[in-house]
Amino acid sequence: MKAIQCHKNCFNCFQEFDRTKELNGATKKATIKKIPTSSKKVAKDLCPNTKISLKERSQILATHNKFRSELAAGRVRTKDNIMPQGADIRKLKWDCELERTAQKWAELCQWRHSDESFRNHKGENLYKVNQNFPVNRIREAMQKNFIAGHMKRAAQAWWDEMAWFETYKIGCGMKTDCIDYSNPLLKHMLYVVCHYDPRGNTLNEPIYEVGKPCSKCKRYPRSKCEKNLCAGGGPAVYCKDYYGNCEKRYCSYTFDARFAEDMKKHCNKTCGYCTD
């Protein structure tokens, strides 16, 4: 089955009430205004102790999913050709634990990848944005990395992490006033760290399976197709044999209930108990 391979170099409102209070000898009426439902929803949606705004978070998430959707649809152009459609690319959702570990690394202002044990062996991408530019430059920085992944092998790993089919959770952190000593013209930077789960960029493993968008979403239980991506659902479940000597002729041996159950458990692909 054709797949894109990864290279080595290869983010209820409060009830209104009135109260009276005495001011300068006169009784005046003070009103506590309603807090809009949308404001409370924003607070609820944010992660505990977050240092990233809902707007920034939404922008990062939308940027990743936009490019993943375009990749799945076969609309990503490389230096030499157009990437084929992807059958099993997942839609990303925000994860507070990934945000926490990403923020922890961003706070250190280290312009390098963290140790794998630091991020619990999750995937990681790093971005630097000049603070003199608006926040939407975060999107432009990510877009640049996504496109550059096909133009320069040095950026391949960043691109693979953003594009990896099985990844469905992302969390990012930010730190301002980091100093980029490598470039005196861009001293003060906005440092963005993104962590991904499951991690991608695995050597010699497929970045995604080539095929019609969403045609392999059934791999992710309870997922559905949204804008060319498999949205929702749990970890991937693959149709495969788990025993090294599965033969079709054994599948018909149903006279022994225990043997038949073993075949269903260990040779479910060969015996047709599942489809991929």
TrEMBL record:
<dbReference type="InterPro" id="IPR001283">
    <property type="entry name" value="CRISP-related"/>
</dbReference>
<feature type="domain" description="SCP">
    <location>
        <begin position="55"/>
        <end position="204"/>
    </location>
</feature>
<dbReference type="InterPro" id="IPR035940">
    <property type="entry name" value="CAP_sf"/>
</dbReference>
<dbReference type="Pfam" id="PF00188">
    <property type="entry name" value="CAP"/>
</dbReference>
<dbReference type="InterPro" id="IPR014044">
    <property type="entry name" value="CAP_dom"/>
</dbReference>
<protein>
    <submittedName>
        <fullName>SCP domain-containing protein</fullName>
    </submittedName>
</protein>
